[in-house]
Amino acid sequence: MDNYQDAVRRTTQVLGEPAAREFLILLESNDAVRADAFRQLYERGGNDSLLDALHDLEVDPTMHGWLVEHLKLELA
Question: What confidence score (pLDDT) does residue 7 get?
Fold first, then answer.
């Protein structure tokens, strides 16, 4: 198993399958939807680590892409 698959498997286990599916939907959403979700997380507060990780995904399209594809495979 490669590192990407292992990371996605652990992420899915931590989130649980329903939340992992919602996360995938968010990742595949358009820019406006993702921006609104990030804004809501920011306004609620207490989500700095999550916002940092989501920011990293936004600025690195390759990382974003591999995460989406590996989540699809894991949840199939």
Answer: 86
Structural contact between residues 67 and 15, judged by C-beta atoms closer than 8 angstroms = no
* Local structure of residue 46 (DSSP, 8 states): S
> What is the reported pTM?
0.83
Listed residue (14, 16, 17, 2) closest to 66, CA to CA: 2
Instruction: Single out the residue of 6, 14, 4 nearest to residue 50, CA to CA.
Output: 14
- The radius of gyration computed from the CA coordinates of the chain, to the nearest angstrom, equals 12
Q: For residue 44, with 0-12 CB atoms within 10 Å meaning exposed, 13-18 middle and 19 or more buried, which class applies?
A: exposed
For the chain, which ranges sit under pLDDT 70? 1
